[in-house]
Design brief:
Order of helices and strands: EHEEHHEHEEHHEHEHHHHEHEEHEH
Helix content: 25-40%
Number of domains: 3
Largest sheet: 5 strands, mixed
CATH class of the largest domain: Alpha Beta
CATH superfamily of the largest domain: Reverse transcriptase/Diguanylate cyclase domain
Length: 391
């Protein structure tokens, strides 16, 4: 493991920082990116906003209560995605082994980069400088002999930090690392581990192995490995997309199925557009509904024929909604596509001839034509007013 050198890059308050970058009037002010309604949540908070105790996933109404001068900005996902691609390209200039794990963070295996770019601290500083010089944004970097340590290290000196864990520091790092900072340890796991007297990752070593596994299941094995400095996870440059989905938190709870169908219409278009962009088709369509008791319900249908256009996605989502008993009002609705495969993969026509899954290929052509118009004139240049009414 000592031969590995893993860098973890995490952008600082990415969405909010992008908004401040693009609008000078927002710089130095408490800014959050999120929904404008009282039912929305904070997607990102600037460091000025964080001084008031505002954080990601906080309801917007609570954020407003904490800061009277709070500026709320709607998200611009295309702009964030555009900058994310540029960030990943910068990282790939240092090493071909780049594993994005979200829009604003990635692992980089820099084990073989010393001859070109110097020692790990030099590489970390160079990465930060390139991102700042080219894009005007700051990031925090952690470098360590293992992925889990590098990720934790990148969070230790935010914002604009650089933390290095050298191989001879691993023992002390593990011994003192608070258990809640270990990836995968949530509130419940922290409570269970605390009841066993485990407050740091190093405490795992003194806990009987069988007791830990009995209490924590498979995760117990993972904790034992990490406590002994073993993390064999490698940086994987290409991550297969397993699903594409979108969801909306409603401005008001509702049992009105017509209103929910309107959301499904736009969500189906969004999911289909993303699949076409990634040249994928899906065999499974999933409806998600969160009711006022905060229970998340999902209903899925797997097809014999993979689909890619909004028409069949919408039809199936609506059929799933029609069959779902809305015993309580919905507060969130969403659509997902999974069972993804390349659009170029051949399909045997006889497997799906006829039946309720039959799809008119004209809608594929319509969707692609709409994509071309939006690429040229902007996302809002063209919208589908109405999809065919489900049977």
């Amino acid at each position: 493991m000592a031969s590995l050198i893993i860098l973890h890059m995490d952008m600082d308050a990415f969405f909010a920082s992008v908004e401040q970058l693009d609008d000078a009037a927002l710089r130095g002010r408490p800014v959050v990116v999120g929904g404008q309604s009282g039912r929305g949540v904070v997607a990102a908070a600037s460091y000025e906003a964080r001084q008031f105790g505002i954080h990601s996933a906080m309801p917007i109404f609570q954020a407003r209560q904490k800061c009277r001068d709070l500026v709320i900005v709607p998200p611009r996902r295309k702009r964030y995605a555009q900058l994310s691609r540029k960030i990943m390209a910068i990282l790939e200039a240092f090493s071909p082994l780049v594993e994005p794990i979200s829009i604003d963070e990635a692992f980089v295996d820099i084990s073989g980069c010393r001859r070109l770019y110097g020692d790990p601290p030099d590489i970390g500083r160079a990465v930060k400088k390139e991102i700042c010089d080219q894009l005007g944004l700051t990031c925090s970097v952690g470098i360590a002999p293992a992925k889990f340590m590098a990720k934790i290290a990148s969070d230790m000196e935010k914002p604009d930090g650089l933390t290095i864990i050298h191989p001879d520091q691993v023992e002390g790092f593990i011994q003192q690392l608070p258990i809640h900072k270990v990836p995968g340890v949530g509130a419940r796991a922290r409570e269970q581990l605390g009841a066993m007297g485990i407050n740091t990752l190093g405490n795992i070593r003194s806990c009987p192995k069988q007791l830990l596994i009995r209490k924590m299941g498979k995760f117990g094995h993972r904790l034992i490995a990490l406590a002994n400095g073993r993390d064999h996870a490698k940086v994987t440059p290409v991550r297969e997309t397993k699903s594409i989905s979108t969801e909306t938190t409603l401005s008001e709870d509702t049992t009105d199925r017509n209103e929910l169908r309107v959301h499904l219409l736009y969500q189906s278009q969004s999911v289909a557009s993303e699949m076409r962009r990634k040249q994928l088709k899906a065999r499974t369509i999933t409806l998600k509904v969160k009711t006022t008791d905060f229970r998340l319900h999902s209903r899925s249908r797997t097809l014999s024929r993979p689909v890619q256009s909004a028409d069949p996605i919408y039809r199936i989502a609506v059929e799933l909604l029609n069959a779902f008993p809305l015993a309580k009002p919905a507060r969130l609705i969403g659509v997902g596509a999974s069972g993804l495969r390349p659009e170029s993969e051949p399909v045997q026509a006889e497997l799906f001839s006829g039946g309720q899954e039959t799809h008119n290929p004209k809608w594929d052509r319509v969707d692609r034509a709409m994509d071309a118009v939006r690429r040229r004139y902007g996302e809002k240049a063209l919208a589908r007013g109405k999809l065919p009414k489900p049977d």
